[in-house]
Amino acid sequence: MVVKKGNGIQLKGELNVPGDKSISHRSIIFGSLANGTTRVRGLLESQDCLNTVNAFQLMGVNIQKEHDKDTYLIEGVGVNGLKEPKKLINCGNSGTTMRLLTGLLASLDFYSVLYGDESLSNRPMKRVIEPLQEMGANIWCRNKQLAPISIKGKVLKGINYSLPVASAQVKSALLLAGLNVEEEIKIIQPKQSRNHTEIMLKKFGVNLVDDVNTISLPGGKKNLHAQNIVIPGDISSASFFIAAALLIPNSEIKIKNVGINDTRSGIIDVINKMGGTIEFDHIRNAEYEKVADLTIKYQNLKSTVIEGDLIPRLIDELPIVALIASQAEGTTIIRNAAELRVKESDRIKTIVQELGKLGADIEELPDGMVISGPCNLKGGVNVSSHGDHRIAMTLRIANLISSEDVVIDDLECIKTSFPEFNQILSSIIQY
Ligand SMILES: O=C(O)C1=C[C@@H](OP(=O)(O)O)[C@@H](O)[C@H](O)C1
Ligand SMILES: C=C(OP(=O)(O)O)C(=O)O
């Protein structure tokens, strides 16, 4: 039995994680499309979400932070009130910004161009472009599948579409296009993916039928009514601290106000399957999204199998789950997760490569990985985040449990989703 290391440190205390990234993007989008002023508390001010804010400002929406307060005010212009942007829209590193906007802009009567950084320029866009073209959209892009994307919006037809992959971004793109369509939009998903768009559309007063794997948006122009939104803490950001507390001896932390929507809480199920316990307090419903305070203590874990319906419920957490598995007793298998290959990096390849350099027993599968533990992470090497925020944060936690220091090439990319990551981590480390 290998002894897990915390290098003499432990994690203690209470913390809050910043607002949920998926819900933040959607608040900006629906707030901009509503009639009236939407107030958003706890918006995630990460680079990805700021790119969405900039996009709507370019299309004439007044979005401002209230002086000295944690609240953004969005003066909605109505579904047809956006103006043609005079500049190209920079989506940066954000797949959510690019895919959701492609859907929305396909049905609005003006010309626009979306582009992104090198990583985003290599991520698949055919998955949104193809069904939108089936609805009649005018969209052009590089090699018929990659950004930059040019759109000349027009009146679209309805669609009855079975998604080939369980993607919340594709589902949301079609629903956004559907806000301006006279016919029904019906989407059948192979597995349940995050449902924040469905929840928020209903909150803004749109009549939508959402029956687990079938979503129907009736035809006709929609009117969205401005709302007050309070954004829960992001469980994907929390997962790095959850992992650190589970793996570092004598740790005990409480993460307050975390969103635990069932379509996002797969990591909790996995920890339970590994024999671990996370305590939930003060479970409540904030604007249709479930929220709780989570207490996590150091504990011994065993291996498990992660597959099937669980995968979309923890897709962004799989890099940090791989690190947890490297410290659990036995062989953990992750499969049905080929989607990891088309994120900010090929996350199967990058996590296997980088945790492997630290000494983890980890192998690649075409659609996942096999990890045996517990293993002593030796560290003492240079590793790369590959410019991917979730790989960077996983390696930062791996550094805490490695015998020798790990040098990570690029930590700047963390600002994509979690600019306060280092500061919050430092605040709970005790020596
Ligand atoms: O809709 C969203 O907000 C997201 C959906 C997921 O992507 P896919 O839709 O590609 O599965 C996820 O990985 C991404 O971080 C955010
Ligand atoms: C995949 C992610 O985001 P996006 O697709 O929006 O770039 C992520 O945040 O891990």
From TrEMBL:
It comes from the Bacteria. GO terms for molecular function: 3-phosphoshikimate 1-carboxyvinyltransferase activity. It holds the Pfam family EPSP_synthase. It is found in: Cytoplasm. GO terms for cellular component: cytoplasm. It comes from Haloplasma contractile SSD-17B. Gene3D superfamilies: Enolpyruvate transferase domain (3.65.10.10). Keywords: Amino-acid biosynthesis, Aromatic amino acid biosynthesis, Cytoplasm, Transferase. Catalyzes the transfer of the enolpyruvyl moiety of phosphoenolpyruvate (PEP) to the 5-hydroxyl of shikimate-3-phosphate (S3P) to produce enolpyruvyl shikimate-3-phosphate and inorganic phosphate. PANTHER family: AROM/DEHYDROQUINATE SYNTHASE, PENTAFUNCTIONAL AROM POLYPEPTIDE. Pathway: Metabolic intermediate biosynthesis; chorismate biosynthesis; chorismate from D-erythrose 4-phosphate and phosphoenolpyruvate: step 6/7. It catalyses: 3-phosphoshikimate + phosphoenolpyruvate = 5-O-(1-carboxyvinyl)-3-phosphoshikimate + phosphate. InterPro entries: Enolpyruvate_Tfrase_dom, Enolpyruvate_Tfrase_sf, EPSP_synthase, EPSP_synthase_CS, RNA3'P_cycl/enolpyr_Trfase_a/b. Monomer. 3-phosphoshikimate binds at residues 21-22, 26, 167, 169, 316, 343. Belongs to the EPSP synthase family. This is 3-phosphoshikimate 1-carboxyvinyltransferase. The active site is at 316 (proton acceptor).
